[in-house]
Design a protein that fits this description.
306 residues; alpha/beta; Multidrug-efflux Transporter Regulator, Chain: A, Domain 2; globular
Length: 306
């Protein structure tokens, strides 16, 4: 058995911590920045090193989160109190890793039952369990597709769609806030053009960008080209991204996108994605985004040199 000095010696790299606790590296770093859950040491190369005590604490926090507790409310508790809460939660149903398909099924059941609070809770647990990239690709994107299909088939009402959208928007906003980036991080500005009012595509892109270390400027929906261009210049955006899910007037939206391209500096990349983007007219100097993996690849290619 380790003595107290060895127990608190910082000697484990982050990959060991993630393997033992089940936390994704991005979520672990976010908890450190936002809540100060542990204070890892550093080796000579500047890499984080964690002690057995750190790993024990992080394991307890992970289990408490999976039991439905907000990390911000339990982050300051001593290990003994955390262990008591985890044991109490286990008495009401053991916490264990959940496959993405199970998270998806539970999320859709909450949508179907018109319970947005339960939906937020299910999705939050999915983020904590899977990490951000897997959550976006394996849970959230399929969920939104399923909601759209069920709504078009008449098996879900407009109230279901609106409640789910509000819950997802709130969750995505929470994820973006979890990622603290330095002031000199590259900047991506996101919006939807005039006559395009669906926000979720752009917000998912915002989460993926924040996860990859970009400072996100989210302007909102249905914005004229001139206002987007002004904001891009004011914030010094390195990349401007647009999302078009369902254009009510493709010709009008195409004109807005073309006008934005003209107003932006020639060296500022303009990227566009979403299921409605394919219906727009081609615009010179505009890059189409196929999916989240392509989006993240484009961001890496356009990131300014350090």
């Amino acid at each position: 058995m380790l003595d107290q000095a060895a127990y608190r010696e910082a000697r484990h790299p982050i990959r060991v911590v993630t393997e033992r606790t089940g936390l994704s590296p991005d979520l672990l770093r976010a908890w450190e920045r936002r809540y100060g859950v542990v204070n890892p040491g550093r080796n000579e190369g500047g890499q984080r090193l964690y002690s057995d005590a750190d790993i024990h604490r992080l394991s307890l926090l992970c289990k408490a989160s999976q039991g439905g507790r907000a990390v911000g409310q339990v982050a300051a508790l001593p290990p003994e109190e955390l262990a008591r809460l985890v044991a109490e939660d286990a008495d009401h149903g053991a916490v264990r890793p959940t496959p993405a398909g199970d998270h998806l099924a539970r999320a859709f059941a909450a949508v179907h039952d018109l319970e947005p609070e339960r939906l937020r809770w299910v999705l939050r647990r999915a983020v904590l369990s899977l990490g951000v990239p897997a959550f976006l690709e394996q849970v959230l994107t399929p969920l939104l597709v399923q909601i759209g299909e069920e709504w078009h088939a008449g098996r879900l009402g407009i109230a279901h769609e609106h409640a789910a959208t509000a819950a997802v928007e709130q969750l995505l906003g929470w994820i973006v806030q979890e990622f603290a980036v330095p002031e000199d991080a590259p900047r991506v500005l996101l919006a939807t053009p005039a006559r395009s009012r669906h926000s979720l595509g752009a917000m998912i892109a915002a989460v993926a960008a924040a996860h990859d270390g970009w400072h996100v400027i989210w302007l909102g929906t249905d914005l004229p080209a001139g206002q987007i261009a002004v904001a891009a210049r004011r914030h010094g955006a390195d990349v401007v991204g647009l999302s078009v899910i369902a254009a009510e007037d493709p010709d009008a939206v195409s004109a807005e996108v073309a006008a934005l391209r003209d107003e932006l500096a020639a060296e500022t990349p303009l990227l566009i994605g979403g299921s409605g983007a394919a219906a727009l007219r081609p615009v010179a100097g505009l890059t189409a985004v196929r999916d989240l993996t392509h989006w993240r690849s484009l961001l890496r290619s356009h990131a300014p040199a350090a």
